[in-house]
Write a structure and sequence with these properties.
The structure is a homodimer. In chain A, helix 12 runs antiparallel to helix 13. The two termini of chain A are 29 Å apart. By secondary structure, chain A is of the alpha+beta class. Helices cover 35% and strands 20% of the residues of chain A. Chains A and B meet through strand 8, helix 6, strand 10, helix 7 and helix 9 of A and strand 8, helix 6, strand 10, helix 7 and helix 9 of B.
């Protein structure tokens, strides 16, 4: 099949739009669990018209398509099981940037980091900050409804897009929303694409909303000798009504992996770390930082307001390296981003530890405590089929527990390939039925990222 | 039909759940255009189980249902064309209020005002503030994705719900999201219900997200001798990067209707009013208010920072009475909430005036300038079929213009009965097709609020 396919695609889109080998496009960051797929072809369209042409042709030929952004996903959402990988790397134009109107219109392949930087250079702020900003792309961020530390105050990607452009079945180009800041005329397809994981169509562009940048973003870091003390501190931030921009945590396992490189060093008995952040003008940030300091201080063995810009950067750079530090422990990891109502945080933390223990795996956990969003992690050697299998069983336990706590199996990574069967557990039969009907409405022939997000239909 | 229907409904839900007459339930605020419908029956379920029973029975019998919240809509969304009106008034329990977790879970029939007040009493803030807060209900707010002045900084209703509970076809109870603050497992049905206008099912409950209340909300009001000066001032607020909580406007016509009661009085030559607002701690609000003052001052013939709480209340009470003052001019009005990209604001203002002039109608306009969301209004005598018809033609011109400016025919009121045909103009054929498929997925027999939101199918 593949040879004929490649010549067909070259004829259709030009030789330069068809990758000569597929090796770099059959994995994403789920590789940390040893996950790789296979592709019949990889195309890199560089215009929306090319995407339309491609999708129209693939639909005619009944060829499946796997949209691919930066490849930084943790759920195998971009891992192909045959078909054509549609890589958005070359669709990377900033279509317009209007700082005086607080908005930007970009191709789907523009990286998150570039959006953040362009905003900053113009005195504005694009708050969503999933990790790997230099690789991850806006289209992929929308497809996963990506979050990050600052989602606690500022919300997830969906909250920052006023419009989405996508190519859907048959090659039709559609637009949901646009440059306007409000719109309730149609059903909200813009939000439906947020978190759709490439299963409804291929996102080709987005209109982003920006806000004036806070002058100062001042983290307040606190360490605790045990988990209960740390969780109580998080509850005190809520209880004191302090609008922290972030409310991150690291547990003892995460600190064991990453604590040694914590800027300035941590006390020996640090077993739970909290990172809050005060933002606004200098005066606002100073005032909130001092209130956060007070709320975080009881039972803490370390509290530090990070005042210098250099130290602030260093802190977040360290924070964004946690995933790698954890992975370095055993070569691989399975990180599951369960989310629970925030009052169930401590129970959710226990869940991960118990699940790991039950299957003989070391665990650790960090993430977005204020949103009840954990990256509950099992450390594995990705080359060991036995460990991968035990981790999958432990994760299954974890998901069961998260659902029982009134939570969800994913807060920001999506279900992709690896968690899709959990949806049948999380949703009731009528809820699941509606999910399949939505998929069918957009993709009647199941050609867009098949075997992702939704479980296999039962009938 | 109706007599048998009433006894059936009494048997099904109990006599007290069936209203003895329908007169109060066949109109909403679109009555200002003379719009009334007719209903075969009105039921007032007081539990979710009753809603399920009712919907299951109506679906079996192929009887249409019109969900009704506070009846404050401006698009005829709650105006029945026969069938059963499902009034949510008695489904009005606050299921839980957890101030220390910044959240509330309510029945759909709880009024917006009660939610706002409960939040306030607990040091918290629920920002959406559509008008008529004492009558409008959370379920209706979700159904219209209601906004209001503070949506400029804080977003619309969709941004404040973490979960929606609804009864869908067959009487199935579904939940999308819940108490958790993030969730990307399933397609985002929560957002799909926001703005669904009762056409996908009956919303029975919601989980609301709250934030710590700002200590101070300090309006800054400025008046200008003409529209260009006022629009320039609005642009300066954006251009100066000032994060005002509101950015409201009133044009000369709205000031002619309501200006005489403006608290403290306005200068004679006031032809355009802007209401910004600085919020936060006292220090934050003071600092932002002074920056807003500076940005609004050039060309203004009146600028006033409203400092006392009494004056602040009086200002917003005046603001919320504008609709009534405008209506009082001729007994009725047709207000259309078009929205445009904010740089097209002045052109959109002109559109309304030109459309009115073309059909010999007095016009005025006010609304949410920062969101490009106008309440472009034609003054009419609702008893005059001729005026109503001319206003409808003028509105049609207005919609055509808004769409041509890259905008939408509705920012926060929805399409209901009166604007639904505009959707075929605003969307492309493939976009419209997806809208019908979504409706069909939820409501294959077209029993939920038929003839609302979507135009009649073409085939």
């Amino acid at each position: 099949v593949s040879d004929g396919l490649l010549s067909d695609l070259r004829r259709l889109l030009g030789a330069q739009a068809v990758a000569s080998n597929t090796a770099d496009y059959i994995r994403d960051s789920t590789e940390m669990q040893g996950l790789r797929g296979h592709a019949d072809a990889v195309v890199l369209p560089d215009t929306v018209a090319q995407v339309q042409k491609l999708v129209g042709w693939c639909c005619d030929q009944r060829i499946t398509m796997v949209p691919r952004g930066g490849g930084t996903g943790f759920a195998g959402g971009a891992v192909p099981d045959g078909g054509v990988v549609v890589c958005l790397d070359r669709l990377n134009r900033v279509r317009s940037l209007e700082p005086e109107l607080w908005r930007m219109n970009v191709d789907a392949g523009v990286t998150t980091g570039r959006v953040q930087q362009l905003a900053r250079e113009n005195g504005l702020y694009y708050p969503p900050d999933p990790g790997a900003a230099e690789q991850s792309q806006i289209g992929g961020n929308i497809a996963c409804n990506a979050g990050g530390p600052h989602s606690f105050k500022y919300g997830v990607t969906r909250d920052w897009i006023t419009g989405v452009e996508a190519v859907v079945a048959g090659g039709d180009l559609i637009q949901a929303g646009g440059a306007m800041r409000k719109d309730v005329a149609a059903y909200d397809l813009r939000s439906l694409f947020a978190g759709s994981e490439g299963t409804l169509g291929i996102i080709t562009g987005a209109w982003l909303r920006l806000i004036p940048a806070p002058d100062v973003q001042m983290p307040v870091v606190a360490a605790y000798p045990d988990r209960p003390a740390g969780v109580s501190a998080i509850r005190r931030v809520f209880g004191s009504g302090l609008r922290s921009a972030t409310l991150e945590y690291l547990d003892a396992g995460a600190l064991a992996a990453a604590g040694a490189t914590f800027p300035g060093g941590l006390p020996e008995r640090a077993a739970f770390l909290v990172i809050a952040e005060a933002d606004g003008t200098q005066a606002e940030a100073d005032s909130l930082a001092s209130e956060l300091d007070e709320a975080l201080t009881p039972d803490a063995n370390y509290v530090h307001v990070v005042r210098s810009i250099g130290d602030q950067r260093e802190l977040w750079r360290w924070r964004s390296g946690i995933s790698f530090a954890v992975r370095a422990q055993r070569g691989g990891k399975m990180s599951e981003d369960i989310v629970v109502p925030v009052d169930r945080l401590e129970e959710a933390l226990e869940l991960g530890e118990r699940a790991g223990a039950a299957f003989g795996l070391a665990t650790c956990s960090w993430g977005h405590a204020g949103d009840g969003n954990l990256h509950a992690t099992f450390l594995i050697d990705p080359a060991s089929a036995n460990e991968v299998s035990r981790a999958a069983q432990a994760a299954d336990e974890l998901f069961r527990g998260a659902i029982a706590l009134g939570g969800s199996v994913s807060g920001e990574h999506g279900l992709g390939l690896v968690k899709r069967h959990q949806l049948a557990r999380q949703l009731t039969a009528p809820e699941l039925r509606l999910q399949f009907l939505i998929k069918k409405s957009f993709d009647p022939d199941n050609l867009f990222n098949p075997h992702k997000k939704l479980p296999e239909p039962q009938n």
